[in-house]
Amino acid sequence: MQGGAVIARVLIDGPSELVFDYAVPVGLVVRAGCRVRIPLRRKSATGTVLALVEDVRRDFALRELESLIDPEPLITPVLLRTGAWIAEYYGCGIETVIRSLLPESVRSEENSAKTRRVAMLEAAPDPAVLEKLAKRAPRQHAILALLAHAPEMRLPVADLGDGSAAALKSMEKAGLLRLEAQQVRRDPEADGADEVLESPPLVLNGDQQRALEAVLASLQSPAPKPILLLGVTGSGKTEVYLQAAQQVIDMGKTVLVLVPEISLTPQTVRRFKARFASMQDQVAVLHSNLSQGERFDEWHRIRKGLARIVIGARSAVFAPLPDLGLILVDEEHENTYKQENVPRYHGRDVAVLRAAFEGCAIVLGSATPSLESWHNSQLGKYQLLRLDQRADGQKMPLVRVVDMRLEASKHKGGPAVLSDKLRVALEQRLEKGEQSILFLNRRGFARSLQCPQCGHVCQCPHCSVALTYHRTDERLVCHVCGHQSIVPRKCPECKDPAIVLQGYGTQKVEEIMAKVLPAAKIARIDADAMRRKHALRDTLNAFKSHKIDILIGTQMIAKGLHFPNVTLVGILNADLSLHVPDFRAGERTFQLITQVAGRAGRGDIEGEVIVQTFTPHSPSIQYARRHDFDGFSEQEMEFRRQFAFPPYAHCAVLTSRSNHERRAEFTLQTLHLRLAENLPPGIILGEVLPSPLIKAHGQFRFQITLRSQQARPLTRHVQAVLARTSLPEDVTVVFDMDALNFS
Ligand code: ADP
Ligand code: ZN
Question: How far apart are CA 550 and CA 433, in angstroms?
């Protein structure tokens, strides 16, 4: 920063999230993440330094910072470095990164440590004094006697009741005791909702032992390679995590555990709590529903090294753990690791980077790794470890595929929801007192056109993706290359006029099930049914204690659940996730079927999975049927390579949004023209297209996809163009690097 003075960009505390620049007075050492006092209008206010920037010419003088609140910044150097990387890689301002790096509850002046008044002894009381008080002031005597009993005790004043105030005051005056403020922790677990019993480590099987040893070896390395732990569902990955974490704790270091979503992975959280029950208060679980005060306390406990195991979702990747020894990323393939607003970082990728900066070990675990991580393991950037058998010696569940085209001909009229095979299987489980899970993937609004007779799905002739039906202009559009076609009146393949948009929801399924199996106790888990607080926990507990026979659910039940009495899993329409306009559709379908199927047969009885589909021969379904990740990845990687899709290229999406359709489109066309000028070599610039979700929240959306083998040149080029283009006021443009969501 030659010449010009340094300017501190400060995020002012308070709900309006104002950001102002201030001059740094000579002699004051300010760093990003420092808490500062600044002048604001005619008052003094507080804020956090987001970044130090170079001064620019301006026609007014900047005001100066008043003072530093704490000399030390709230952010550790490694996290600051991670933040800078995020800003550069994802093309966003460092201030937006720092903002998510430091939770609002930590930044804000409003929050501070909670304290209570306590009474404590100055010195052991003189027996003579005690005796005198016993007669003259019984209340004073009672308090003093209590304290004399345990001289180290700090007696909360509030516990003594209102009537004691005078007694305490006169004793303080007489020098018999001291009153002071003591910090109290707002403990999110204080309600004791989740009582856990200590669970001792299990004896590892050979594969687990080898995996653990590799992780332990990586703990010793100064610059360990990330580890990809590919273990089939129920192979005992969690047990490996737990034992590795124990070692790290024993080494005096700390552990960060990332899970896709806290509320959807209650069992994983519980297992960590149970294993580390003897150091329960050192385990911090960062829920999204912590109160501001609880979050403040947990953050500071972590920062001070008092909480040595931190479990949390995506944003926990920024937990300020000192002496980090190990990061565990469970279900690393999950999309929830990607943040869908600015900064649009991927929690797993940031974790890998943070581990590199910290020089600590990192394990990415999954039964169905993302092809990105898989590719890295094939390139030797990650070390691959495998667990190919279930830990308890059980077989993988038997997966049957039911061709719903044949079922459709039996059910005249409405859609066939339940095949005869699945219905019979459900009845059998009910008779035997075993439980079942029915899964319906209802995510995705953009629907594809499919023929109920032959199963034909309208696909783009140039790309391996389904065409999306656009209701507004009655067209089928390819969201990769822009190819358009008219909506056929009859199936292009078998000429049946019944070609329809596919789809039905979980509520409909519940309704049908109640009719078909009136004796069964049925519950539904989806976003609609789970609005009530604790609804998910209560329903899962009811299922666990077998108050429910059949659980119907969406993605919410696909992850990490372990119910030994579940012997049947039905997947109602495996096609729903297959024909979305996204090159990852096949990968997601494979992951979903494998994960959901993994819920079956986790007890002593072998599990069965019934997959209903209109496209029984699709590779995603066939490979999932055989639990064959290698087969699936081999053919899918070939497709990705041919079309230069991730992991062979980075794929970014530039989206424009506006209440005015034309303006959104026109803005993006202007950007497209500028992006095409001096396009760096190796970048594939897509066309301007309406987003699959053309209107959302009242806004019209258009998008361009860009692909490139190198991430940085792509981000830099887009940022440079954006920087010299002034956007119309009512148009927002969003850049999403390594986008996972193309809607
Ligand atoms: P994953 O995390 O790979 O899905 P889990 O860790 O949940 O697998 O293990 C599946 C089941 O096997 C759990 O009930 C777990 O207690 C059990 N298990 C794990 N490791 C062992 C072992 N070494 N011996 C016996 N049972 C084990
Ligand atoms: Zn196409």
Answer: 11
Q: Which of 240, 329, 364, 392 to mutate to test the pocket of ligand 1 (most atoms within 8 A of CB)?
A: 392
Distance 612 CA to ligand 1 centre (A): 29
Closest residue by Cα to atom 19, ligand 1, is 236
Same domain, 247 and 355: yes
Q: Domain end: 605, 640, 675, which one?
A: 640
Residue 621 lies in a domain: yes
Interval between CA 515 and ligand 2 midpoint (Å): 43
Regarding whether 563 and 468 lie in a shared domain, the answer is no
Expressed in angstroms and rounded, the spacing between residue 462 Cα and the centre of ligand 2 is 5
Whose atoms come closest to the Cα of 485: which ligand?
2
How far does residue 487's CA lie from ligand 2's centre (Å)? 16
The pLDDT tens digits of the residues spanning 562-609 come to 888 999 999 988 887 777 778 999 999 999 999 888 888 877 888 999
The CATH number of the domain holding residue 693 is: 3.30.70.600
Helices (H), 251-370: 266-275, 292-303, 347-358
Q: Could you check whether the bond before residue 713 is cis, i.e. omega within 30 degrees of 0?
A: no
Output the ligand 1 site: residues, CB below 6 A: 202-205, 208, 231, 233-239, 391-392, 562
Same structural domain, 597 and 686? no
C-beta of residue 325 within 8 angstroms of C-beta of residue 219: yes
Tell me which residue has its CA closest to atom 23 in ligand 1.
Answer: 204
pLDDT tens for 299-335 read: 999 999 999 999 999 999 999 999 999 999 999 999 9
Cα distances (Å, whole numbers) of residue 56 to 22, 47, 63, 64, 93: 12, 22, 14, 15, 17
The CA 477 to ligand 2 mean position distance, Å, reads 8
Distance 582 CA to ligand 2 centre (A): 11
End-to-end CA distance of the chain: 42
Ligand nearest to the CA of 392: 1
**Same-domain pairing of 10 and 86:** yes
Per-residue model confidence as pLDDT tens digits over 493-549? 888 877 766 545 677 788 888 999 999 999 988 766 776 778 888 898 899 999 999
1 within some domain: no
Query: Of the bound ligands, which one is closest to the alpha carbon of residue 687?
Result: 2
Do 578 and 724 lie in one domain? The reply is no
392 in a structural domain: no
**Position with higher pLDDT, 509 vs 705:** 705
Domain end: 57, 90, 107, which one? 107
Do 103 and 118 sit in the same domain of this protein?
no
* 128 contacts: CB under 8 Å, gap ≥ 6: none
Instruction: Point out which residues pair with 524 in neighbouring strands.
Output: 552
**Residues of the domain holding 378:** 206-387
Mean pLDDT computed over every residue of the chain: 87
Band of pLDDT at residue 153, cut at 50, 70 and 90: confident
Gap between the Cα atoms of 334 and 708, Å rounded:
23
- Residue 82 shares a structural domain with residue 130: no
The confidence score (pLDDT) of residue 2 equals 40
Locate the ligand 1 atom nearest the alpha carbon of residue 235 and give its number. 3
What pLDDT score was predicted for residue 117?
84
Q: 642-663, pLDDT tens digit by residue?
A: 999 999 999 999 999 999 999 9
| pLDDT at residue 194, rounded to an integer | 56
Is 195 domain-assigned? no
* Residues 279 and 377 both lie in one domain: yes
Counted domains in the chain: 6
Rounded Cα gap, residues 176 and 284, in angstroms: 39
